[in-house]
Specification:
Largest sheet: 3 strands, antiparallel
Number of domains: 2
Strand order of the largest sheet: 1-3-6
Order of helices and strands: HHEHEEEEE
Shape: elongated
CATH topology of the largest domain: ADP-ribosylation fold
Number of strands: 6
CATH architecture of the largest domain: Alpha-Beta Barrel
Strand content: 15-25%
Length: 141
Amino acid sequence: MIDPISSSQPPKRDLSAIKSQLQAWGINASDSELKVFNNIDSPTKFYRIIGQAERDLLIRGTTITGQRYSDNTLLDITTNPSYGRISREQKYLVTFNESSRFRVANIEQEGEVVVHDVNQDEYYLKNGYSMSDVKSLVPIT
C-alpha cells in the first residue's frame, strides 16, 4: 500500500523485464495485463486465522509450517482480519509483524508471501512462522 502521508511513491517496475521473465516461465501477458499488474499495490498487513491446537504449538515456541502440501512450506494467510472461510470451533486471529518477510513475492524482489486469490484476500506464506513473526494473537468471538 502507498502511505498517503508519505510523499514518495514506490518505483514502477520495468514492464519489458517483467514480460521477458513471464515469457521465460511460459506465460504470455498482453501489454494491458502488464500495466494492470504494474499498478497493483502490494498489501503489507497479513493475518492468519488459527485453531486452538496451532495456538498452543505457537505459544510453546514451535515454528508453524504448512501441512496441506507435500513440501510443507505454504500456509494460508489473508489480508482480511474478518476473513470468514475458516471452519474451526475456537478461532484466534494472528496479526503478523510488518516486515520485509511479509511482502508479496514478485519477479524482481522475493518476499515470502505468494498470491493465491486476490479477489478472496487469500495468500500463501512460505517457510512457516513463529512467535517472533507475530504482532498479536487474540481470540475471535
